[in-house]
Amino acid sequence: MLEIISGSSVKKLDTDFITEKGITSHRLMENAALAFCDWFEENYHRNDKVGIFCGPGNNGGDGLAIARLLWRKGYDIIVFLVGDTEKASADCRLNRELLPDKLPAISMSSDDIAHMEFDLNVVVDAMLGIGVNRPLAGDFLNMVVKLNDLSNVRKVAVDIPTGLPADECLQGEALKADVTVSFQYPKFSLMFPEHAGYVGVLHVVGIGIGNKFMRQFTESKYYLQPSDISKRHLNFSRFAHKGDFGRVLLVGGSYGSIGAVRMSAEAALRTGSGLATCFVPACGVDVIQASLPEVQVISSSGEKRLCWDEGDMGVNRFDAVGIGPGMGGSAETVTFLESFLNVYKGPKVIDADAINILSNHKKLLNYLDKDAILTPHIKEFERLVGHCENHKQRLGKALEFSSEHSCVLVLKGAHTSISFPDGTQYFNSTGNKHMATGGAGDVLTGMITSFLGQGYGTKNAVLCGVFQHGLAGEIASEDKKRGTIATDIIQAIPKSYLQLNVD
Length: 503
What we know:
The protein has 503 residues and is an alpha/beta fold. It has two domains: 222 residues, YjeF N-terminal domain (Rossmann fold, 3-Layer(aba) Sandwich); 254 residues, 3-Layer(aba) Sandwich (UDP-N-acetylmuramoyl-L-alanine:D-glutamate ligase). The chain contains 18 helices and 18 strands. The strands form two sheets. Strands 1-9-18-17-16-15-14-13-10-11-12 form an eleven-stranded mixed sheet, with helices on both faces. A seven-stranded parallel sheet has the order 4-3-2-5-6-7-8. Helix 12 links the parallel strand 13 and strand 14. Helix 3 packs parallel to helix 4, helix 10 packs across helix 16 and helix 16 crosses helix 17. The longest helix is centred in the C-terminal third of the chain and has 20 residues.
């Protein structure tokens, strides 16, 4: 599991690591460059024409080291020097001196930036790193604007795109990277959806700083990796029966919206639930029975919306419940949700319309507890807590909400965040833009509910559910791209187990 460390801690981390290992800062920079080049070789051909744009700081030093290493590997490299080279850092100056004489390195004046045309296939951005604390200006701004205007050119940012602060929201302009290759750990601001158009696809490469050392700088924020998930999965005996894999109940649906709870139920089955039951309005019974014969169905006394018939359901016989998809927000449904939350005491996932009801009827928040997992998207979340100026503020409020109500808060989106009452916050590394489709959230509800029912416990259930949901989305979209729909994600869930090597 990768720590997410603030930019203000990086300098001390690097200094302490260099001291402990008895290496130079240049050696650590060389490690970073080698790691970047290993990644680059896997993704770009030697016949690509690569322009590496280097500033005067340590990020520029990384870029110069990368240029030297890639040139020696046979890449067609040209270096562009941006900014005041007289003020270059010591390691940047050293890497400038180490450039081979035959490797072209051009110092860019303001006039050059304004008029030069770049004939490149790939841009590597190493102008400014995590030390940026104000909007770009001067040559750096002009160069970023110039590079952002280049079409049909892949842009790769070294550690962080130029202009993007490490811990705050962007003010002004920044380089719009297609890919960001971050060293050792992702920077906090790379998790913000406002920055998605600047970060592109995020890759994290190791540079030799182990997790044990980095824990000294922990800020209780973590970036999930496949190895973190595989070890959280339970192993079941060959003698296990369907009851051992959990009895789950999916509650939701209303006239015209039965599909939502149906997808949650199928997702629960594909995730491994032994027994799945739907509780739906009477109008949904035939729909569920005909389209998903593997589940049982309980009918509400309400024809088009959920109503509570106290004592009729025996809900506490279920190991976990997912509630909310497609249930609407009528007065009857509000009464139903309050009665249900009052009666059911087990692990639960609260999603979609159930969250909107909580937002409009705040007294129902009193029913939340350590066994409750809320899964809002950004708009649903802001209905709960009020308007947020930016994602950093949202993440802070997510932690506050989780702590105040002793529940788990899953804030869905790119790099979905998971906030726990103890103050820890996890960020997902799986998923892509092709999952932005109706019903994807209902699939997540079913997956987390399934893991809860299988006995994973709250923390493992939510981490495994969020990660594998994103992974299934990646698998489903490999050949469908923007044609991916929610049921495609469901069908890819079994392949996510195969990819994680989980039996």
